[in-house]
TrEMBL record:
Function: Major role in the synthesis of nucleoside triphosphates other than ATP. The ATP gamma phosphate is transferred to the NDP beta phosphate via a ping-pong mechanism, using a phosphorylated active-site intermediate. Shows the highest specificity towards GDP.
GO molecular function: ATP binding; metal ion binding; nucleoside diphosphate kinase activity
Species of origin: Musa acuminata subsp. malaccensis (Wild banana)
Reactions catalysed, as given in the entry: a 2'-deoxyribonucleoside 5'-diphosphate + ATP = a 2'-deoxyribonucleoside 5'-triphosphate + ADP; a ribonucleoside 5'-diphosphate + ATP = a ribonucleoside 5'-triphosphate + ADP
Protein name: Nucleoside diphosphate kinase
Cofactor: Mg(2+)
Phylogenetic classification of the source organism: Eukaryota, Viridiplantae, Streptophyta, Embryophyta, Tracheophyta
EC class (word): transferase
UniProt binding sites for ATP: 20, 68, 96, 102, 113, 123
Keywords per UniProt: ATP-binding, Kinase, Magnesium, Metal-binding, Nucleotide metabolism, Nucleotide-binding, Transferase
GO biological process: CTP biosynthetic process; GTP biosynthetic process; UTP biosynthetic process
Catalytic machinery residues: 126
Length: 162
């Protein structure tokens, strides 16, 4: 029988999720965290930080040619951001589903952006878009000692392994 600490040892998928300054200022921290937590994903790192403009530019490096890049980086560095790492089976792809489409007008009701945001420039949350991005973003925002590995009591009920 698997011991608790061996549960899912082979499939610890992680993603980087950030509540942007608009989500923080609008008092949506608990609402957003709660959606990931209730789903059954596990929080393994969290901090509140005001990123510098340079840091924001690194985070959004892939978008540097886009016309909104400068405004986007100004915005991300305009106030506190909640930076998090969430862990669980399929968390990268399903995290994006929980978040909804980039443009809240196109996000389905029931998604975070669909329920809680209106325009693309203030869409309250960021989530890694694939395994490589997740790896890079986690490494950019967190040191390895800030990532906490633990077994939650709920895991055997969420995954049905015992
Ligand atoms: P994503 O956040 O859904 O992954 P990306 O295409 O990676 O979307 O864009 C990053 C962020 O840039 C978006 O979340 C949004 O805040 C902003 N953004 C994307 N497209 C536009 C746009 O057309 N105008 C203004 N801001 C945009
Ligand atoms: Mg993106």
């Amino acid at each position: 029988m698997l011991q608790d600490h061996q549960l899912h040892a082979a499939e610890l998928e992680r993603t980087f999720i950030a509540i942007k300054p608009d989500g923080v200022q609008r008092g949506l921290i608990a609402e957003i965290i709660s959606r990931f937590e209730r789903k059954g994903f596990k929080l393994v790192a969290i901090k509140i930080v005001v990123p510098s403009k340079e840091f924001a530019e690194k985070h959004y490096y892939d978008l540097k040619e886009r016309p909104f890049f400068n405004g986007l980086c100004d915005f991300l560095s305009s106030g506190p951001v909640i930076a998090m790492v969430w862990e669980g089976e399929g968390v990268i792809k399903y995290g994006r589903k929980l978040i909804g489409a980039t443009d809240p007008q196109k996000s389905e009701p029931g998604t975070i952006r669909g329920d809680l945001a209106v325009v693309v420039g203030r869409n309250i949350i960021h989530g890694s878009d694939g395994p490589e991005t997740a790896k890079d973003e986690i490494a950019l925002w967190f040191t390895s000692s800030e990532l906490v590995s633990y077994t939650s009591n709920a895991e055997k009920w969420i995954y049905g392994v015992n």
